[in-house]
Design the sequence.
């Protein structure tokens, strides 16, 4: 089946720094990638949708200047959390699709101290 | 706006029981519906995908049904095992946008 990887799997950073998370589709070309955020014991909340070569579409309430998304190729999308604060600590999950079915990455645990 | 509700929120059962997890959605104009499993601190594992034209899908001890007209899907787990302990999420994928809306999940514990 289709495989999506994320890197890093976990990261700890200091408040005020920026963190980049990568999402890769390993064995297929993903025309669309999605970024989700999940708080403990909560469901996944869609943050943004990105299509290769175009600007990401952010969900209402998600700060586009804080969560920078780049989808430079059909196999790679990156999420950069800029000037991270403790409230940004969360589990970030990406998914990739080439049609109607999405394939999810293993997630990245971000802790901001 | 699509809303997805999962009942129950939590379930604890002894090993061997047959289980039914429920998922309801408000907008029946879905493209498909997916069931996922999530272990603590991990990402999502896709279990079953039901296209809007289908009524059910089966994989091993898992069976998922879909009734679009009533806005419901159920995940049936036969002969539950401790290894089935996890959170189960359903997601309704909207037609056209292909964007899924997730429920909050059902946290399942199967004890020996």
Sequence:
């Amino acid at each position: 089946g289709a495989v999506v990887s994320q890197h890093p799997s976990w990261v700890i950073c200091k408040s005020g720094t920026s963190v980049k998370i990568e999402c890769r589709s390993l064995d297929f070309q993903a025309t669309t990638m999605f970024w989700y955020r999940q708080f403990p014991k909560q469901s996944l909340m869609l943050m943004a949708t990105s299509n290769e070569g175009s600007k990401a579409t952010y969900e209402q309430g998600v700060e586009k200047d804080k969560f920078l998304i780049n989808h430079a190729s059909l196999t790679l999308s990156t999420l950069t959390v800029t000037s991270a604060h403790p409230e940004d600590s969360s589990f970030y999950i990406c998914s990739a699709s080439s049609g109607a079915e999405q394939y999810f990455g293993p997630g990245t645990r971000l802790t901001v101290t | 706006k699509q809303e997805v509700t999962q009942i129950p929120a939590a379930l604890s059962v002894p090993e061997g029981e047959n289980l039914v997890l429920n998922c309801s959605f408000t907008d029946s104009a879905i493209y498909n519906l997916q069931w996922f499993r999530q272990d603590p601190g991990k990402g999502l594992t896709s279990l079953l995908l039901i296209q809007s034209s289908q009524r059910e899908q089966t994989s091993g001890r898992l069976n998922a049904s879909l009734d679009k007209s009533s806005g419901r899907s159920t995940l049936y787990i036969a002969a539950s095992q401790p290894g089935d302990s996890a959170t189960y999420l359903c997601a309704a994928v909207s037609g056209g946008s292909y964007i899924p809306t997730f429920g909050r999940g059902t946290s399942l514990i199967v004890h020996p």
